[in-house]
Specification:
8 helices, alpha+beta, 11-stranded mixed sheet, transmembrane, 424 residues, 3 domains, 17 strands, membrane, transmembrane helix
Length: 424
């Protein structure tokens, strides 16, 4: 093999510098991105998950132990338990509303989206509200994640309204409606104007999955009376019984806006079939005037029921069931795409320059074929002064024919051709 001499040192330095610049650019690419733990979406896989117990309302967090303790009087025990459930349901509705509601926007979280307390899992469209359920890793897992599932439940409300012609200021025992019969109704409390009183009759109007709730919007100028049918739909995509809402929750949630529990009777009777009512000032969301708008009153009653379900899911104890277990994930965060494009452009440009230099240098080198004549020509200068014994000798014998001080070097002559230079 008889190639030409290498290129000048300046060309070699340019080639080396170009290669180093490309490697530096490739290393610089690592400065443009970060690999972090997933904080918005995570993958899921079938496994054991922790879900809230939705079979009932757990009252022990808001009521005293005596409210549900066993007594010798069975009816008294039932009354106390009913009142505890009503009080808890109404309190949970307020908590759910405080978490925030997405109004006129169905912002359904994608399955696998991590729970974010800044994003309310309740969305309302007109008079229908949707609550979204989450699944978490079990307490025995080495990490904790709570991710959205594909399950949801809807609450809806359909309302009618009438102007109040008498007693609308909230200071009389009865009110008269501007309907075709001039209907007269009793009012459980005289709370005056500037408030809305929600009323439900547990004995006749409260049912599993739906309730009839009435409301008096007391005012000295424009009082209104509403009658709403508030309902809770079955859980969407429920697979196992633990995904469904229990009868107790479906009984309390639709009527929760009117439930008071304790102290509903001015006479202190507190019977389970006593009329339940709650009054909210006009300055609050629930007491704000709807001015006869059925859709606004429907939104208030429906969102309150959704808030009860949300707070129950967040407050009740959990159950371990099969579901979609959230897994740890990673995200590739790129802060500035311009920097990425710049680095990639420089790398590609330098690699192209490196390739062009290699092509130019390769065209400057001549490589001859592997022939016996070429090898003999290459070795001629080294073996020419030896005797004929070199032709028949072995490698060791051939090496012994050279003096011990002999050196051989593969060098380039003035014409750019390599040869073996023998000295010694």
């Amino acid at each position: 093999m008889l190639p030409y001499c290498p290129a000048p040192s300046s060309t070699r330095e340019l080639l080396i510098n170009t290669s180093q610049a490309a490697q530096i650019g490739l290393a610089t690419l690592g400065l443009t991105y970060n690999v972090n733990g997933a904080d918005k979406m995570v993958p899921t896989q079938p496994g054991l998950v922790s879900v809230p117990d939705l079979s009932t309302l757990q009252t022990y967090k808001l009521t005293s132990s005596s409210s549900s303790s066993l007594t010798s009087n069975g009816s008294a025990m039932t009354s106390q338990m009913e009142n505890a459930l009503r009080y808890t349901a109404n309190s949970y509705g307020m908590v759910g509303l405080a978490a925030g509601i997405n109004v006129n926007a169905l912002n359904a979280p994608e399955p696998g989206a991590l729970f974010n307390p800044d994003n309310s899992p309740i969305s309302c469209m007109n008079t229908t509200c949707y609550s979204w359920f989450y699944e978490a890793t079990t307490p025995s897992a080495s990490y904790y994640l709570m991710a959205a599932s594909n399950r949801s439940v809807a609450t809806s409300s359909t309302c009618e309204s009438w102007k109040v012609t008498r007693g609308g200021s909230g200071d009389l025992d009865t009110i008269t409606l501007a309907d075709d019969r001039n209907t007269t109704l009793n009012v459980p409390a005289k709370n005056g104007p500037g408030q809305t009183t929600f009323i439900v009759d547990p004995l006749h109007d409260q049912h599993i999955g739906w309730s009839i709730v009435t409301a008096l919007e007391a005012s000295t100028s424009e009082p209104w009376f509403y009658r709403c049918n508030v309902s809770v739909a079955p859980v969407v995509n429920a697979i196992i019984p633990e995904h469904e809402l229990g009868d107790t929750l479906k009984l309390m949630a639709p009527a929760a806006i009117a439930l008071q529990g304790y102290g509903t009777s001015n006479l202190g009777a507190n019977l389970t079939d006593r009329i339940q009512f709650q009054s909210y000032p006009a300055e609050s969301l629930l007491g704000s005037a709807c001015a006869g708008s059925n859709s606004l009153m429907g939104y208030q009653t429906s969102s309150f029921a959704a808030g009860v379900i949300l707070a129950t899911a967040q407050s009740n104890s959990n159950l371990n069931v099969t579901g979609q277990m959230p897994l740890k994930g990673i995200t590739l965060d790129i802060n500035n795409w311009s920097s990425v494009h710049l680095v990639l452009g420089l790398i590609m440009g330098l690699q192209l320059l490196f390739a062009l230099i290699s092509i130019v240098l390769s065209n400057m080198v001549m490589v001859r074929d592997h022939s016996h004549l070429g090898e003999a020509t290459l070795l001629r200068s080294a073996l020419g002064h030896l005797s004929y014994r070199a032709v028949m000798g072995s490698e060791r014998e051939l090496a012994a024919m050279f003096p011990e001080t002999t050196t051989m070097r593969y060098v380039c002559d003035g014409d750019g051709v390599y040869y073996l230079r023998v000295r010694g």
